[in-house]
Amino acid sequence: MDNLNGVGEGINAGNASWTFGDNTPKNFDEHVRRSVPFYDAGHELVVEISDFFVKPDSTCYELGASTATLIKLLAKRHKPSVRWIGIDIEPVMIEQAQKELGKEKERLDNVDLVVDDISLYGYSPSDFIVSYYTLQFVPPRLRQELLNKIYKTLNWGGAFLMFEKVRGPDARFQDMMTSLYTDYKLKQSYSSEEIIAKSRSLKGILEPFSTQGNIDLLKRAGFVDVVTVFKYICFEGFLCIK
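Predicted structure:
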């Protein structure tokens, strides 16, 4: 869902729980770019990595498509015969995504946007699946089962590309990462009040794991070949090949 801590500072402020519904989709991309270091560069990296796995007849997925910013780039990159399916649980996100696709000069008929729960969706065999800061919002009790499903869905040699916010391996490193990320958001012109309000709103909603915690989940699902392809403070991208 391209979603993570810091998205939309100043939206839905106060002590209310964070939501990706309501009016969030209208300003989502603007705010996420200010909150996620190297947000667009991460998209470019995903697109370039996809070249190694996407075939002319592939079925590929984005888990948490949000406003279709990433899946749109992927669909443009590859042949029209590649089927791209973007899944998001929020109807208003998919509605905004449809609007964004409609703004394109050339119709992207190879993109399907679906309102569904990524944990329950019935996947077809796939060569490439991407989750861009999405699994951290899946309840921990469901995360292993979802990764098991993703592994089974992939064709042999296919890839799962997962970007996540990660916790530090211990308290000292976590304090350092929190401080560095707070400084980053302050440099993006977020106020201290906005940062605190956002942190409060995400309690019980955003549940990141450590790097090792994510790797353990992936290995239990069946992935043997896992490598970090992106790392900046508390943001990490994992390439996992079946």
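Summary: The domain at 24-241 is CATH 3.40.50.150 (Rossmann fold).
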